[in-house]
């Protein structure tokens, strides 16, 4: 080889630096974990209380001005089969075997709502190249600004819940997703799905209060009577209900770094179509790796300097003046 | 080792001086008719592609593609951008070999390698504007107050944009040399030569950055990408496979242009490039399997994904097995075969890491629509037409002296 050992070491040292920063976890450079905001707003959905009336879906469409979503060819039903650019909140149904017992994994059924989980550390916000998706610094709502969006759909790749939807049938398309009815906040409003839920299956409020309420429900004994708040977690309007069994798991407390939409059920969440996620957020993995390589552009500049030195020497036959 | 290498260093320096002295005579246009039968076939494909592109802008992405909310990225990203830019890494790989590793004996193939890179990258950049839904907002990527520096896609986009410009600058000498008697052209030629160390250094740094970042893109997909491909080493694998694809495409293109224009083959040089490529593949495979072993990835139990994984890595192994034999690496047929296997291996790795290994959940399927495929073929046709035009009219291919 016409390459001297010294030159080889110089190039591989700079390249090796980039590689080494990949291979070895550097805790000093790891991105700080994102914590729940004190005023974070969210939803607690309790599948054991849900009766599958879909009032939340109707209210959602009305207050977000969304068109009907026709699945059946006769075009007279608003019958979405999944989240889409026309449907940002859906009630799904899990069934097994005879499907007679409510909230049972075997020979039972369970409802499950799907909507944007409003992650504490959202992948979509990390992924979006043009800050079209942002996390509200007060309420923590993940909002969408079409004026910035370039329609690259990296948010759809990034979201672990497949929530952001794209208008494939439009020449001038947008991303559509639940924004927790944030447009209704200034007038004192809140998420329409919770406002119109007749049973208290979905309640709106501060996420810390929602978490306390979820823990209270998990501590209740099945068969006993208990009060369930309606519409909002801090509501004085409560309804008595005979407690049914819960799975001891608050979905969203840990998943993917935590979410502002929390869920309770008695059927394992992976059966209900929710992914099993590690406790850390994927955004923090991606950004830690990315910032390790590019923090302050130090590594690229070092590599550039090394390359320039080598090439100068190789093309002119001289050391740098 | 030291004596020998300093000797070759000296030799390469004097050969550099000689190369500069006869630089005008090192490359020359192939000449001949531009409008040939293959050229017309390519033109027809390009026309079909352009008509379908217009339809895409009028009717939306859903009208021409099979993309869905489950598979938001299809072949336009995987083939046109990922494979397209990796096939455009010839200029990168050769610049690394010649300028950084001081192997001036490969200088004759640098220019044609840069030419394929120019078109590969330029068209990949344009394909992005076909794929993004709200293309009129594209300029937001360049506004410091909207751009999100946490987004890996930003690094990829800005870096590819910058590299397209660098590649055109690297191609400028070929364009300027076309008119040797023009005073202004010679002046610019001289200026460019003085800036060569800077241009070459940036031209090596930028692909190193974005080719690795293309791999980093999928980290955030988390569980949606199979553990066969989801790893913190994605940027490393994308970078190494881009370098090997760069060497392979240089060999591939050299053999094909020799065949097409009935020129002598550069067999010994291509053999040496291929051996270098094989060594990089060995490093790639060693790290790839160490990583799989370390993470305990389900290599054989993932059904179709396992099949594609095995196929991908067998294709990586083929060039190593072919080139390990000193007899075979003198034989142009095996050198050519090795380059094809490497191109397929790197392409399949990209398809696996972005499409085949990606599963958004039950119920989602993707296979490209005919219109989607024809648009990609149209882009490829434009690329080949531009290549034919350039090598016939501009001094790109080495003068026949081999």
Keywords summarizing the entry:
heterodimer, A: alpha+beta, Alpha-Beta Plaits, 2 domains, 3-stranded mixed sheet, 8 helices, 27% helix, B: 402 residues, mainly alpha, Formate dehydrogenase/DMSO reductase fold, disordered N terminus
Helix/strand layout:
The complex is a heterodimer of chains A (321) and B (402).
Chain A: H1 5-23, E1 41-46, H2 55-63, E2 90-95, E3 101-102, E4 108-114, H3 123-127, E5 133-135, E6 142-144, H4 154-158, E7 165-166, E8 175-176, H5 192-195, E9 202-206, H6 207-219, E10 225-229, E11 238-242, E12 261-264, H7 282-294, H8 298-316
Parallel strand pairs in A: 1-12, 3-4
Antiparallel strand pairs in A: 1-9, 2-4, 5-6, 7-8, 10-11
Chain B: H1 2-21, H2 23-26, H3 37-59, H4 61-64, H5 75-87, H6 90-100, H7 107-131, H8 152-177, H9 183-216, H10 234-260, H11 267-295, H12 304-323, H13 332-356, H14 370-393
Helix pairs in contact in B: 3-14, 5-7, 5-13, 5-14, 6-7, 6-9, 6-10, 7-8, 7-10, 7-14, 8-9, 9-10, 10-11, 10-13, 11-12, 11-13, 12-13
Mean pLDDT of chain B: 88
Q: What's the order of the H and E elements of chain B?
A: HHHHHHHHHHHHHH
Indicate the proportion of strand residues of chain A: 15-25%
Task: Report, as a whole number of angstroms, the end-to-end distance of chain B.
Answer: 29 Å
Count of β-strands of chain B:
0
Report the biggest beta sheet of chain B as strand number plus sense, adding barrel if it closes: none
Structural class of chain A: alpha+beta
The ordered string of helix (H) and strand (E) elements of chain A is HEHEEEHEEHEEHEHEEEHH
The CATH topology of the largest domain in chain B corresponds to Formate dehydrogenase/DMSO reductase fold
Query: Unreliable segments of chain B (pLDDT under 50, ≥5 consecutive)?
Result: 1-22
Quaternary form = heterodimer
């Amino acid at each position: 080889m016409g390459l001297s050992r010294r030159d080889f070491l110089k190039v591989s040292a700079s390249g090796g630096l980039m590689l080494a920063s990949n291979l070895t976890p550097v805790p000093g450079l790891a991105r700080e974990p994102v914590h729940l905001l004190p005023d974070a707003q969210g939803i607690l959905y309790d599948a054991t209380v849900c009766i599958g009336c879909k009032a939340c879906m109707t209210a959602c469409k009305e207050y977000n001005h969304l068109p009907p979503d026709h699945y059946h060819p006769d075009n007279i039903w608003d019958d979405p089969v999944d989240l889409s650019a026309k449907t940002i909140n859906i009630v799904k149904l899990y069934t097994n075997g005879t499907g007679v017992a409510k909230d049972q994994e075997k020979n039972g059924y369970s409802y499950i709502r799907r909507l944007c989980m409003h992650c504490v550390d959202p992948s979509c916000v990390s992924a979006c190249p043009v800050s079209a998706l942002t996390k509200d610094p007060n309420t923590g709502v993940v909002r969408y600004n079409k004026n910035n969006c370039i329609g690259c759909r990296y948010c759809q790749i990034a979201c672990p819940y497949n929530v952001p939807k794209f208008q494939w049938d439009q020449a001038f398309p947008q991303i559509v997703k639940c924004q927790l009815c944030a447009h209704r906040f200034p007038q004192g409003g809140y998420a329409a799905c919770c406002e119109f839920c007749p049973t208290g299956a979905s309640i709106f409020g501060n996420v810390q209060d929602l978490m306390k309420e979820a823990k209270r429900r998990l501590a209740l004994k099945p068969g006993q009577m208990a009060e369930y708040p309606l519409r909002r977690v801090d509501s004085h309007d409560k309804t008595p209900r005979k407690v049914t069994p819960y799975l001891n798991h608050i979905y969203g407390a840990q998943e993917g770094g935590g979410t502002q939409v929390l869920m309770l059920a008695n059927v394992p969440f992976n059966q209900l179509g929710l992914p099993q996620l590690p406790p850390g957020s994927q955004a923090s993995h991606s950004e830690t790796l990315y910032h390790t390589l590019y923090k302050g552009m130090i590594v690229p500049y070092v590599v550039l300097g090394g390359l320039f030195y080598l090439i100068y020497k190789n093309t002119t036959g001289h050391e740098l003046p | 080792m030291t004596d020998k290498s300093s000797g070759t260093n000296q030799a390469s320096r004097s050969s550099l001086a000689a190369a500069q002295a006869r630089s005008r005579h090192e490359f020359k246009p192939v000449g001949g008719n531009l409008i040939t039968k293959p050229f017309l076939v390519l033109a027809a494909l390009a026309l079909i592609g352009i008509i379908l592109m217009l339809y895409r802008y009028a009717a939306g992405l859903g009208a021409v593609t099979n993309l869905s909310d489950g598979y938001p990225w299809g072949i336009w990203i995987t083939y046109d951008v990922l494979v397209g830019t990796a096939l455009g890494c010839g200029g990168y790989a050769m610049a690394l070999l010649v300028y950084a590793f001081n192997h001036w004996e490969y200088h004759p193939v640098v220019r044609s390698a840069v030419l394929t890179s120019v078109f590969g990258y330029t068209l990949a950049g344009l394909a992005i504007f076909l794929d993004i839904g709200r293309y009129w907002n594209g300029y937001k990527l360049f506004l410091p107050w909207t751009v999100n520096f946490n987004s890996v896609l930003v690094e990829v986009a800005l870096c590819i944009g910058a590299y397209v410009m660098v590649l055109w600058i690297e191609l400028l000498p070929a364009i300027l040399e076309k008119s040797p008697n023009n005073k202004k052209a010679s002046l610019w030629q001289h200026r460019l030569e003085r800036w060569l160390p800077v241009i070459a250094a940036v031209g090596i740094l930028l692909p190193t950055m974005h080719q690795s970042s293309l791999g980093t893109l999928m980290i955030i997909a988390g569980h949606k990408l199979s553990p066969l491909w989801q790893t913190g080493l994605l940027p490393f694998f994308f970078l190494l496979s881009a370098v090997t694809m760069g060497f392979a495409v240089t060999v591939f293109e050299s053999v094909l242009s020799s065949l097409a224009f009935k020129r002598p083959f550069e067999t010994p040089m291509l053999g040496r490039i291929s051996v270098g490529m094989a060594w990089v593949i060995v490093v790639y495979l060693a790290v790839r399997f160490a990583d799989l072993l370390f993470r305990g990835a389900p290599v054989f139990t993932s059904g179709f994904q396992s099949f594609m994984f095995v196929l991908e890595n067998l294709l990586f192994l083929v060039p190593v097995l072919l080139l390990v034999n000193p007899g075979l690496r003198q034989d142009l047929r095996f050198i050519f075969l090795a380059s094809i296997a490497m191109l397929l291996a790197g392409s399949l790795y990209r398809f696996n890491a972005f499409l085949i290994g990606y599963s958004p959940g039950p119920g989602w399927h993707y296979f490209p629509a005919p219109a989607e495929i024809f648009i990609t073929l149209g882009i490829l046709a434009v690329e080949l037409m531009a290549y034919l035009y350039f090598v016939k009219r501009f001094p790109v291919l080495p003068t026949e002296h081999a």
